[in-house]
Amino acid sequence: MSNLAPTANTPGLHVSKPSPSEPATASAVCHCGATATAKGDAQVGALIAGWDANHGSAHIEGGSA
What we know:
- The protein is 31% helix and 23% strand.
- It is built from two helices and three strands.
């Protein structure tokens, strides 16, 4: 399987949780240039909430860069 991590050329959000006993990890790259990483279930949840509110589809809906 290829690397699914987002990059400047392929922006997006990637979340991984290999097993229930391991912490989740996430990385995000937005086409506006914002980047973020998180480790741990609570931090990953916060990153996802921030992505939903401020990046990803929020740019499409709000029209901001």
